[in-house]
Amino acid sequence: MSDLVAELVEILSPERVLSRPEDLIPYGFDGTAALNSPATVVVFPETTAEVQQVVQVARRRKMPVVSRGSGTGLSGGSVPVAGGLVLCLVRMDRILEVDEKNLTLLAEPGVVTQRIAEAADAVGLLYPPDPGSLKISTIGGNVAENSGGLRGLKYGITRDYVMGLEVVLANGECVWLGSKCVKDVAGYSMKDVFIGSEGTLGIITRVLLKLVPKPAAKKTLLATFSRMSHAADTVSALIAAKIIPCTLEFLDRVTIRCVEDFAKIGLPLDAEALLLMETDGHPAVVEEQAQAMEAVARQCGAVSVVLARDAAHAAQLAAARRAAFSALARVAPTTILEDATVPRSALTAMIEFIQEVGQRHQLRIGTFGHMGDGNLHPTFLTDERNLAEMERVETAMREIFEYAVSLGGTITGEHGVGLAKKRFLPGAIGDASLELMRQLKRAWDPEGLLNPGKIFDR
């Protein structure tokens, strides 16, 4: 260890290399409950060249390398590997360029997502992906996990806004993939392979993002329902009417009560479900769509529909959804946030199944999520010290994922596989697809040093 630390200090500096056990504690876990492992050494590079040198040192020593941003991941993707090196990229935090002529932004991986949004907003543009952790998460982590967000229904996810990547490979070489061109089909779309690869194929050191014009207007509505099925019916009816809100989020009864206790927003405690609906675009279109959305919700059984009075009121209504995870996390010692995703037509069946599973296994589960794109977040309120209850949680999770797959869904819509879900991956994608991924991993990282054990075992 002393030789390793000395070599790393020579490349970086003493304050950018951590090796004392007490200093390593914050880097032994991410946002995933019940998953942790002590780091061996943590380094903080500030340039791509330094990342390359660190990777080369690790390669010579056959050390695993786990790249990390803010550690907000929810699949254990940045949990350290025994005997490995943690490459923390938070000091690579510069926005290098905002190109208004080409509607692009170039940033280093450690830039916090909200800073990306603010830089775009400052010039009248919009970076649409808005994960729930945008105030803390970094853009490199967003790309590595292919993060989603509340605006995913209309605008898409992180993958849809990545035009180029700089990546350091397992052998220490650096490559640039993509361009500022809207059309670019010169060869394989290699950048797309790295998006969502969870640090297992390469280390992202620069990201070229697409921006879009900022919408001129927005309206926010909050609909209340006495039955969950009515909320799901509203989603289906909106899509059938060819109305695509920029946000279509929901909270169930458990989550509503937790959020109200936490934030005191004034939510109706007798509601079975809430839908947060937002539309944006040209003012005339926004006005028309807001009226249509309210009418559809009422036709589908909404007890009430509240239209935000102004931007401040809209932010207050949206806060109910954004506070969901924080509110639920106050209820029990351990909060396990999942993200099973199904086709929109299967939402009612999936939600009812989650409720039934919770009752059958005597578990408290709060469900919220992106109802517009079928991405649900069943959240287990439990205690990891209660081994019997954790066994029931494990059984319930398996049943939920298996049911989601049976409905044509998937085990994760935005959190990734990491450590938390790799045991469910074969059942979700099949052995042939899994072997194809293994072949790619072996070709690009033959020694298996980049984030080993995540997504699948070799």
What attributes characterize this protein structure?
alpha+beta; 16 helices; 18 strands; Uridine Diphospho-n-acetylenolpyruvylglucosamine Reductase, domain 2; 458 residues; Uridine Diphospho-n-acetylenolpyruvylglucosamine Reductase, domain 3; five-stranded antiparallel beta sheet; Alpha-Beta Plaits; globular
Structural class: alpha+beta
**Structural shape:** globular
Uncertain segments are: none
Number of helices: 16
The CATH architecture of the domain at 95-213 can be given as: 2-Layer Sandwich
Which range best describes the helical content: under 10%, 10-25%, 25-40%, 40-55%, 55-70% or over 70%? 25-40%
What is the top-level CATH class of the domain at 95-213? Alpha Beta
Going across the biggest sheet, name each strand in turn: 15-12-14-13-17-18-16
Question: What is the CATH topology descriptor of the domain at 95-213?
Answer: Uridine Diphospho-n-acetylenolpyruvylglucosamine Reductase, domain 3
**Proportion of beta-strand residues:** 15-25%
| DSSP, total strands | 18
The protein's oligomeric status is: single chain
Distance between the termini: 27 Å
Mean pLDDT: 95
Biggest sheet character: 7 strands, antiparallel
Radius of gyration: 22 Å
